[in-house]
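Narrative of accomplishments. A recurring question from our advisory board has been how the design workflow behaves on a single, concrete structure rather than in aggregate. To address it, we present the structure tokens for one chain from the evaluation set, followed by the sequence designed for it. No filtering or post-editing was applied between the two.
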């Protein structure tokens, strides 16, 4: 029975390899059949695509992409998301140490994913917006697509429930929400090594300007 299964698997692999080989051969043959005019048109097409991509990048940079920055008040939130397709907004609080962990990772991702705007907003200075977006746990990432809040990353629950999650783990989570251009496998999160002493989520009730907030921390030191 095992030999039969191995034979089937071997045949499937051989067929897959053959299909890939045929596809590569076809592409090589197509290139070989091109004359100078065809090659020149191909070169111009690729150059045009590069110019378009560079222009798009400059447009993003002019709108505040490429860096992780803070907006001063909730009034600034709406103009920031209005003219941008993808926005990640971190609702934070100075006294919550896990917000600083999020800051570290978002600063890295902002430079890598220029197609997305990364901003942060102090929840204590945004009571109306926090109420409107139902921000109850700090930190929370609001993931905005086409001006509408599509998804949330609440605390570290989606990131392995550990303070030591990797930047790749957060990148994968944002990719699942389609708020960044993710090139990895969305069906499976990146492998994360869990060290001893890992801290897990423990919610504590806090108050901000009379509102009840939950802090995704076991300490606010």
């Amino acid at each position: 029975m095992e030999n039969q299964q191995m034979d089937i698997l071997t045949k499937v692999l051989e067929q897959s390899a053959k299909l890939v080989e045929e596809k590569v051969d076809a592409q090589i043959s197509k290139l070989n059949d091109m004359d100078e005019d065809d090659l020149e048109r191909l070169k111009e097409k690729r150059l045009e695509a590069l110019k378009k991509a560079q222009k798009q990048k400059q447009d993003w940079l002019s709108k505040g992409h490429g860096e992780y920055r803070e907006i001063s008040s909730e009034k600034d939130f709406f103009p920031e998301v209005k003219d941008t397709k993808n926005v990640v907004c971190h609702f934070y609080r100075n006294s919550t140490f896990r917000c600083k962990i999020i800051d570290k990772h978002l600063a890295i991702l902002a430079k890598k994913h220029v197609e997305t705007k990364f901003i942060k907003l102090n929840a204590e200075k945004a009571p109306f917006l926090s109420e409107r977006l139902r921000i109850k746990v700090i930190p929370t990432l609001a993931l905005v697509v086409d001006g509408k809040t599509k998804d949330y990353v609440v605390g570290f629950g989606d990131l392995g429930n550990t303070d030591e999650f990797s930047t790749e783990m957060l990148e994968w989570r944002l990719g699942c929400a389609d708020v960044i251009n993710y090139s990895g496998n969305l069906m499976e999160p990146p492998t994360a090594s869990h060290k001893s002493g890992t801290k897990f989520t423990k919610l504590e009730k806090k108050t901000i300007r009379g509102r009840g907030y939950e802090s995704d921390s076991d300490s606010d030191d």
